[in-house]
Amino acid sequence: MEKLVDQQEAPFSFEELFFSRTDVRGIILAGNSVFQRISQYDWDALIKKPHNIIRHPDMPKGVFYLLWDFIKKGKPIGAYVKNRARDGRYYWVFAIVTPVNDGYLSVRLKPSSDFFDIVEGAYKALLDYERTHKPPSKESMEHLLTMIQPLGFEDYDAFMSVAIRKEMLARDAKLQRTPEPFLERFEELSDRAIALMKETASVFACYEANQYVPMNLQIQSAQLGEEGRTIGVISGNFSIVSNEIQQEIVLFNQSAREVFAQIYEGQFLLCVAQMQQEVVAFFERESRDVPIDTQHEMKLLLGQLASYQQKAEGSLRNILHKIHRFQDDCSRMKKCAASLEVIRVMGKVDAARLSHNNSSLNDLIDELGAFQTGISQSLNKIDRFNAHMRHDTEGVIGSLTSC
Hints:
Layout: E1 18-23, E2 28-31, H1 33-39, H2 61-72, E3 77-84, E4 90-100, E5 103-109, H3 114-133, H4 137-148, H5 156-174, H6 181-210, H7 213-224, H8 229-285, H9 294-353, H10 359-401
Antiparallel strand pairs: 1-2, 1-5, 3-4, 4-5
């Protein structure tokens, strides 16, 4: 039995890219021939019409609220969108929307990565949520953001950065062509950024698990009386170092998050620049039989390309800057960890001098040793991540400057 028209897909190839440009209200000002053909509207039914004429009813309103929230702030965004052609057929795209000339430019490609299947299911769940609870658009967007967290993403910026890379790699595979080298570099960078955040969390967890050791040492010192005076001094020293760690760990966590966010921003901007470069080349090969000023549109496309290439290169250099700053924070944490080891050894020696064995005191000193060991091991891993991330980033920058 033949499918109903609205259950059929409007076909377009992986090689095809299309774009449309709107004003700030979302009114269509221009587009390329692929956009017009797939939408199945004549040009006079597209130009100066609201872009939502191709909106599909299966699209959750929270997705569009998120999209507009980004672009109204002047931020580019990548999002999966299900559109509807004039005859009712649907077509999915991964849309890259960027602000341009008091309006917006949307470049679209055909999605095919493993993320696409996940997102399709997530949109259905979000649509069911909207139909059941009838939330405001902002609340629906917030619900969407909670849905991506189980996938391992803290925010939408990280999600869209990985999504665009995955879609570009999947598209390259469909077209049987070699991917751009930076895509694989950023795959490694993303994995290391995730591992970096896990190790940073381990440092914080280690601190939280041992933050009461100084107080417990002080209690032991008081119970030992005159014999525990030296333990009291050691406890005081430990309190000083622990307070230093507490102050440093706030900066350390913030610094790690900045590295994490910068890597995802750099990846997204570089992918955006690459797709804009491809749409420029595609537009050059297209038929010029369109009722728009193609020279003006090409000028705008080239301007966007130059702008995002510059933004991507700046973001990459920012990654290096933030990695270097994080290394400085890591070095300060290492000095604190080294101080902990000195205090532990002093405590071990002094405990051995006591007239009788104190198992509670020995346990506390062992906890101090575990604290120092845990932090040191995590910091050593972070050092290795830093070195690899710096190498990968320098490799991406080198490949860009050599082009």
